Each structure stands twice: as C-alpha cells, then as structure tokens.
C-alpha cells in the first residue's frame, strides 16, 4: 500500500506494506484491515513533524545477548510480515502457493509403466492366437482372471488339436463341447481313452463341425463315424486312417448325408471295400482329395467310380491297393489332377503311366516307387511330356543311370521342370561325369543303391550339379 501523503512537503512517506499473493478471501480481508490501520497512522496533523519510523527487527534476527542464560529471546514477527507456515494454514487448500524460484528443482513423479492390459481386447486376442493350445491353457490363462477370460474366447475353441493326449476322455470332450459349440475342426488322433460315446456327444453338440481327424483310434467303430455323418452335414474333411473296426456301413452314411465332403483318408482301414467307396463317389461329388493305403478290398471299380463322378479331384492315392492299369487308366479323365500316388501297384504298366502324364497336363507330383515294371523308356516320356512336373519318385523301379541324363537333358530356358527327384541307382553311375557338366538346377535329389544313400540337398545355384560323396 502506498501512503497518500507521498510527495507532501516536509512529510516523509510511509514505508510500503508487503502483501502476500493469495486469492483467499480471508487473506484479502486481512490485507484491507492492515491498509486501513496504516492509512490512519499516516494521517498526522499538518505542520507537526512526523517522527521517523523505527526500523523493525527481522523475525529471524537474533540479538547479541540473550535475556537469561545467554539464550536468544524469540522476537515477534513484524506487523507487516507473515509466517509462511501460518499463512499456509490460514490459506487452506484454496490458497495459492508461492511460485518456486527454480521450478526445475521440484520433484516429479516417474511416468507410469506401460500395462499390456491397456491394449484393446481384440489386440490381445490376436496375440493369444499365436500361442498353442498348451501355452494358452497352461500358461497364459494362469496370469490373471482377465487373461483367463480371453483364453476362453470362442474363437480359440473353433480348431482343437488334442492328438496324442491320453488325458483326453469322453468326459473332457463333453465339457469342451458344452462350453464351445462352435467347434469347426478337431483332431483326436492317438487318443486311446476316447470312445464312441465321447465322439457321439461331440457330434451332437457341434453340428457345425467341418474337419474330423482320428488317426490310429482303433477303439472307435462305425458308431462314431455314423454319428459324425448324421449330426454334421457340413462335414468337409474326414481322416480316419488305421481304424480296424471301420466298415462300409460308416462310409454309406458319409456318402448319403455329407454332400460337402472334399477330403477323405481311409488308409489301412482293412474292412473297407468297393461297396462303401462307390457310395461315397456317387454321393460326394465335390471331392478333391482321396487317399487309400493297403486297402486290399478296394479294386478298379472304386477307381473308376471316383474318376467318373468326382471331376474336381486333385490328389489321388491308391498305394498298395488291389488296383491295376485297367482302373488307373480312368484317371486320365481328371483334368485337374495335380498329385498322383501309385506306389506299390503290382500290375501297373508303362503305357498307362505315359498316357496319364500326356493327358493330365496339370500333374506336378508323381510317385511311382516300388513298381518294378517302370523302366527307362517310361521315365524318358515322363521327362518330355510332363512339362509341369515338379516332383518325381522312382525308388525301386527298373531304371538305370541313363535316366539321370534323360532327366537333366532339358532345354536351358525351361525353368519349370522337375525340381525334386528321388530314385535308385541300379548300375555303377558311370554317367556322373557327364551329368556334372550340365547346368541343371534342382531343390532336392536323393540317390540310393541298396543300403547306401547318396543324398544331398541343394538350392538353385548356377554352379555344377553335385559331387558324389
């Protein structure tokens, strides 16, 4: 506050009053009171000299001599000065604190550590989708309740791989099916504690099942496959290889009720015959893959039925089945055929193989292992006619090392030719010196003679072919 008599002749000005910077109403009232008192003190009669104001001692200044015992006596604070601690108490939470002279010296709280749970649930679900079933169930779900709920999301229970888990029982299958009825794919291969009852419950509670795999479940019978076929009409894949108790009765239900079936595998199901296979061929017209192995009751009639009724077939395998060239020749009608497995067909002649290679232009994989009739002339035709052929398997065929020269004598500009070869050397491989001079490149070459295996992996390099170990 500035004295109103400032500048008056012969009268000294009153000292200015220090006011605390505060927005508090109480502090403002105190300031007004002090101003009035100081103004009253300044109003002296005219013409009388105003006594000089005595300097006020500082609140923290200590006198040289104490009142008693040499101890300094506390001095009361000046009228115009305030104790900061008391002023803070009077101001209360609404008071305005004094600004710091050096703001950078103030203590700052460290930034909060990032929390993965702050991510959106969709991001966490995407992360958890990269974990295996064991990692989700035995690790991630035990972190916290939030993660446990995420691990139980329905999208993680659409595709279940329970293979080789002996703790899987009928009761566990029932619990899984009851909790998530959106299962589209399940694999219970090598689960020996699962019976027909568990599979039937699973099929009843999961009508949207698309892919069913149960390899080597010898305890299962036609009851399970009939339940799957009856309750899951949208079924597209059935792989039940090596089930000794499976018969044509189960196949009949598949052929009559599962019209969307595209992929079947009945290898080493020894009780399956042409009766069940023909019903599947006539009922499942969308088949794309079929694999049979050592099914001795499957003959040329089944091969003919599939070739006539399933034009979309791309992969066909009849390894060790009782088929001959009379049935295999019907496969030439399959224009989309890309992979053919004819291993161990005892009555397969060279003419049939050459005709298939000529007419099936999309063929890229051919397996002729364990066929002693296949000779050099047949392989030479395969090398010339099979322009899209990438894989050729000739183990235990009646061929010589001359075949190597035939296979590698391809035009230099033909880049899409055979890249994977597995064959057996019958003679001394005297043509190695000629082969090493070619510029042929490949991804895989395996040469065997008896118990010896001359194998070497190779990528596409421009240098020489390979050197014999």
UniProtKB/TrEMBL annotation:
Source organism lineage? Eukaryota, Metazoa, Chordata, Craniata, Vertebrata
Low complexity compositional bias, start-end: 38-47, 61-72
Q: Which PROSITE patterns match?
A: FBOX
Residue stretches making up the F-box domain: 113-160
Q: Which UniProt keywords apply?
A: Ubl conjugation pathway
- Gene Ontology cellular component? cytoplasm
Keyword Protease found:
no
CDD domains given for it?
F-box_FBXO13
Protein name per Swiss-Prot or TrEMBL: F-box and leucine rich repeat protein 17
Report the domain of life of the source organism: Eukaryota
One Pfam entry name: DUF7885
* Basic and acidic residues: compositionally biased ranges: 79-91, 99-108
| InterPro entries, alphabetized | F-box-like_dom_sf, F-box_dom, F-box_LRR-repeat, FBXL15_LRR, Leu-rich_rpt_Cys-con_subtyp, LRR_dom_sf
Q: Where is this region: Disordered?
A: 1-117
Q: Where is the composition biased (Pro residues)?
A: 48-60
């Amino acid at each position: 506050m500035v004295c109103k008599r400032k500048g008056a002749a012969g009268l000294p000005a009153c000292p200015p009053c220090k006011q605390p910077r505060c927005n508090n109403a109480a502090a403002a009232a105190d300031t007004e009171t002090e101003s009035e008192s100081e103004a009253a003190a300044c109003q002296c009669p005219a013409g009388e000299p105003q006594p000089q104001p005595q300097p006020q001692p500082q609140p923290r200044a200590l006198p040289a001599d104490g009142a008693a015992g040499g101890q300094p006596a506390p001095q009361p604070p000046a009228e115009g000065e305030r104790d900061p601690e008391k002023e803070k108490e009077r101001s209360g939470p609404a008071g305005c604190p004094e600004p710091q002279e050096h703001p950078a010296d103030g203590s700052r709280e460290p930034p909060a550590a990032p929390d993965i749970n702050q991510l959106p649930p969709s991001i966490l679900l995407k992360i958890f989708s990269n974990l295996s079933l064991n990692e989700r169930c035995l690790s991630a779900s035990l972190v916290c309740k939030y993660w446990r709920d995420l691990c139980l999301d329905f999208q993680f229970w659409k595709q279940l791989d329970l293979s080789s888990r002996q703790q899987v029982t009928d009761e566990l299958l029932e619990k899984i099916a009851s909790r998530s009825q959106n299962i589209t794919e399940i694999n219970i291969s090598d689960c020996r504690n699962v019976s027909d009852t568990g599979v039937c419950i699973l099929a009843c509670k999961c009508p949207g099942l698309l892919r069913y795999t149960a390899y080597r479940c010898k305890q299962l019978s036609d009851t399970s496959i009939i339940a799957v076929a009856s309750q899951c009409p949208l079924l597209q894949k059935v792989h039940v290889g090596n089930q000794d108790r499976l018969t044509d009765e189960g196949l009949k239900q598949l052929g009559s009720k599962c019209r969307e079936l595209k992929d079947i595998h009945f290898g080493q199901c020894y009780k399956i015959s042409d009766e069940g296979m023909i019903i599947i061929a006539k009922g499942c017209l969308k088949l794309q893959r079929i694999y049979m192995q050592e099914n001795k009751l499957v003959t040329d009639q089944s091969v003919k039925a599939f070739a006539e009724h399933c034009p979309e077939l791309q992969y066909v395998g009849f390894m060790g089945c009782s088929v001959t060239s009379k049935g295999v020749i019907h496969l030439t009608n399959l224009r989309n055929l890309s992979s053919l497995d004819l291993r161990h067909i005892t009555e397969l002649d060279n003419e049939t193989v050459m005709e298939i290679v000529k007419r099936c232009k999309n063929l890229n994989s051919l397996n002729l292992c364990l066929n002693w009739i296949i000779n050099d002339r047949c392989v030479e035709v395969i090398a010339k006619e099979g322009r899209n052929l990438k894989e050729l398997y000739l183990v235990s065929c009646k061929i010589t090392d001359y075949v190597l020269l035939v296979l590698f004598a391809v035009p230099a500009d033909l880049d899409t030719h055979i890249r994977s070869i597995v064959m057996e050397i019958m003679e001394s491989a005297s043509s190695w010196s000629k082969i090493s001079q070619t510029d042929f490149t490949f991804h895989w070459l395996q040469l065997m003679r008896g118990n010896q295996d001359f194998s070497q992996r190779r990528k596409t390099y421009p240098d020489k072919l390979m050197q014999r170990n």
